[in-house]
Design a protein that fits this description.
This protein is mainly β. About 10% of the residues lie in helices and about 40% in strands. The protein contains 1 helix and 6 strands; from the N terminus they run αββββββ. The chain has a two-stranded antiparallel ribbon. The chain has a two-stranded antiparallel sheet with strand order 2-5.
């Protein structure tokens, strides 16, 4: 099963807990995406900067506590070896 097929399965299937193993090869690092962002200390989603505060759209918090979060955006190539259990 490919990641595209897994994504379609997640969208259309009845909600349930599943475990899966995916084999992928890192083919590059997207350096233009940035290495860090200001995230919500509650949910880690990216915050929106206001004039004198930060807003978390996910938590609906207008005075969210900010935390510096790090990330790496990767380009991957998948093989069709995916096992659901």
């Amino acid at each position: 099963m490919t990641l595209s097929e897994l994504n379609q399965f997640i969208i259309t299937a009845e909600s349930r807990i599943i475990e899966f193993l995916c084999t992928a090869k890192v083919t590059g690092i997207q350096q233009d995406e940035g290495w860090c962002y200001i995230g919500c200390s509650g949910c880690s989603k990216k915050l929106v900067r206001e004039i004198s505060s930060f807003t978390c759209l996910s938590c609906n918090e207008t005075n969210a506590v900010a935390a510096l979060r790090y990330r790496v955006a990767l380009c991957v190539s998948t093989t069709p070896i995916l096992h659901l259990s």
